[in-house]
Amino acid sequence: MSHTAVPLPTDDALVDELRRLAAFADPVPAAWRAAATACYGWHRIEAEPAALAYDSLSGRDPHLGRLHLAGRVLRELRWTGGGRAVAVEVDVSDDRLRVAGQVSPWATVEVLAVWPEGLDKVTSGEQGGFRFDDLPRRPLCLVIGGDAPLKTGWILA
Amino acid sequence: METGAVADLVTRARQGDDDAWAALVDRYLGTVQAICRGYRLSDDAAADVNQVVWLRLAEHLSRLRAPEGVGGWIAATTRNECLRRVRSMPAPGPGDGDPPGGDGAAGEEGTGFDAGLLVYERDRALLGAFDRLDPRTRRLLRLVMAEPRPDDDDIAAALDLPAANIAAARARALDQLRQLMSPQRP
Question: Is the ipTM of this complex over 0.90?
Fold first, then answer.
């Protein structure tokens, strides 16, 4: 039977039809729910959120904060909180990230790099320096250990 | 869902309640998807937007000034992320059809619907008519048909329109859809 023989529906009936069609032909992917659920992990990290004090990408000219070196992008960020600061340089290259940072005041502390599916950890040197040489190119936050741990916001590179 | 109930979910999620976060996801995941589909992002880009929105919400949960407005926050954040991706895409070449987020004529790709699943002619006709709507109207109807249905305030935040205009815009959009389904239309 052709659709032309069917009377046109009212507003509510039409919305119901559309909703039924969407639920059947375009359901929310299961992976989306899993991803959304995993994102709550940041909230559960037991550390004080640090405030973003500087982001080289937040200037008016989007190119001011970037250095393009043979296809790589460098981004500089700095957070503060609880009398401490952490500054990092993020080197984005294809599907990997390198992060070099500095904790101040200088301290030897555990530093975690956390992404939705995993984490890596290093210990900062006596002068507060740390680096991660091979991280996946995923949303990333850092957790700076010590007596009063700090966590950064998400770095989306 | 009443605004008090939504605010309660935010309050509980701030306190570390997994179930409250899961309920927020249940309530607004369809809205996020509807907005992404409205901008015709690729599956990968849309999935990326979804993740960024929820990451940002987890980060900003404690700083939301109006917990009852979390739906509007999610809708506006999703729209901004979609626009950011649309702007970063290369301009389409001739014959590339409707670009993601564009205002041109609708193309076959990017509606998000798997038309191959549709058995009934009427459903295919409805999808065909939906696809011929202008992009702004499609975006509105995508939200109207989302499950659970977003509040008018959330739809307004997603479309950057006054909430008072949503009911009339919805009626006009459905009228357009009906006209496109009409057999008199060429």
Answer: no
